[in-house]
Write a structure and sequence with these properties.
Order of helices and strands: EEHHEEEEEEEE
Low-confidence stretches: none
Number of helices: 2
Number of strands: 10
CATH class of the domain at 63-143: Mainly Beta
Radius of gyration: 35 Å
Shape: elongated
Distance between the termini: 96 Å
Mean pLDDT: 81
Length: 146
Amino acid sequence: MFEARGGRARGRLRHNGGLSPRRVLFAAAILLALAALLSSLSPRERRAVAPSRTQQEAAVERPARTVSGRLPADKVVRAREGNVVELEVMSQQADEVRIDDLGVSAPVQPDLPAELRFVADEAGRFPVTLRDSGERLGTLEVTPAR
């Protein structure tokens, strides 16, 4: 079968035949497992749940109330959860007005007040401060909705 010529072995290589059915099934099972794994890891589109009938009726019956305040003149601005809060904030220096716990901020200039408008969606007492100077200008007090 093999001959040595010139220091090299020469011969005829034989193919071992076709793939056995067992190997084909094993390969198919591996591919299916990989496909299932990739499918479970891929991101899915989340569908929003429609509000219930009573939630829709409540939204129609009770429009959001707007609460306005001026800081530092008012010192404490009171609102309820669900109210729209409008704050006008004055400062003698250029800075940024922040309500850190609510993630609300806006720039302020000595001649241009900051205007913050947001929905009070969390109950609590929240300090209104200037970022750079750290000065506390007042407090937003949000009480739970009835």
